# Entry
Amino acid sequence: MIPVKHRLDIGRYLEGMSDGGYTLDQLRGFVAVAEEGHFGRAAVRLHMTQPPLSRQVQRLERTIGFALFTRSSTGADLTPAGRVFLEEARRLLTAADIAPLRARRVAAGTAGTIRIGFTAVSALTVLGEWIKTAAAELPEVDLVLSEMVTHAQLDALLAGELEVGLVRQVPRSEILDSRLVATDSLVLAAPRDHPLARLDKWPSLADVGEHDVVTYSPSEAWYFYELVVAAFQHARVKPRYVQHISQVHTVAAVVNAGLGVALVPSSAATLSLPNLVFREIADMPRDTVELFCTWRTTHDNPALSALLARV
# Structure
């Protein structure tokens, strides 16, 4: 067992590499001698003569302040401290070999991290395709996912806390760029035994307005709130709103419980709640629900560029 103070000293001396205390060549020479157990065989392995190798190891020992080998006429045996140092030297050499490759991959966008914000419903559609694409084509890129409403995503993008967001509406800005990635239509969600679910034709907005309507929070879900209000106003219908809720999946759950009907994006049908049916609405305009991806125009993340090019 190596005394604790030796382990602490070794850790401190390993930090000396960043200060120019010793070199990768010295570490490689040390590892070769440790693995061969002999300076002569290690020199042959490294395609050099023995004296320069011996001097390399001696300089390394002087730098770190303790002996790595017990030398004899038959070879070189690691000291207890040398055995611990060997483990760390191998780790450092491996890291040094991997670093350029890793850096090249990051520069090319095939490795790295992307912080993605998304709305609840986008997780049912676009986000899933992004995850599949990244897994198949960018397997060394880590996706860090955060569910947020649109305004929280925009704040996080401006603060540099996200690289890209899946949002409902993007304000005009020189700071943010955006792209329309999906459209959807509002449909009726109703309990299975509800009169609107049993109609032999598509219900109209006037039909919906005769029943209790679960709708969206004007502060937390203003995008869907305004879509629903505009649809009813255009049809000259004044519905009875009974609940105002912030998330689409929660609206669907409340309707599933029998507290009314609601207008939801058709993609919400993937929730498959047991008491819920979805019906198209005869006079509802199509593709009014839009989803954008947005990112900072000045971003410097090659992995984000690689993902956007693929999705």
Notes: Residues 1-18 have pLDDT under 50 and may be disordered. The CA atoms of residues 179 and 302 lie 18 Å apart. The longest strand covers residues 176-184.
